[in-house]
Design brief:
Length: 251
Amino acid sequence: MSTTDSPRYPQIADDLRRRILRGDLAPGAKLPSERVMAEDAGVTRGTVREAIKVLRAEGLVVPVHGSGVFVRDQPRMIRLARNRLSRGERARTGGTFSADMTALGKEPRVDAEIVLAEADSSLALDLEADEGTPLLARRRRMYGDDTPMQLATSYFPADIARGTPIEQRDTGHGGVYARLEEMGHHLVTPFVERVGARAPSREEREWFGLAQGVPLLTVTRIARTAERPVEVNRMLMRADYYELVYEIPAD
């Protein structure tokens, strides 16, 4: 890239981004070749490549080996917080992740691993327990069709989870919250979710298949009864697919 061209790649990325968001370049559309874009903009092909790197990091385009660069045709998963964890919704949909993937036109699949753990200082704080408290952990790899969508680990106090259906890989219709309530642990509102973002580890980037620069959304949810917290769920979601929507009442 020449010194003259170096400030130009953000402008080229901005122009392509506008065309994608306006729909001028539709989902699945192939971008013009590097040569054509370079000639049109009067820059080097290296400058065009830098602009495309920006769009790849934002999850707007994907390269296909031997074919070119295409506008991502994956619709974003809008995760609306309102009522998603209510008893009525859980009974209707059978589970929030399954409902999310069905709405996206994808077949949900969850690979679960059940392990024993102990509360570290962070989990102890969220569970209102002592450090070292025995826990049951449900680690899940969650897919829409064959696309990795989420990594999630739920932690339960072992004294309420051991020897129960929560230890099963498939917890059935309504998921762990339905099983908890069947066992007499009546969940109370509100559920609390903390949302953040961070860079993925190398292993996480490889598993999700993320472009360089795409972050992960972090969501930590705490579910409780009137007496105590009964679950801490730590979720990692790919930021190029998910949009988190929360409604905040004015009153």
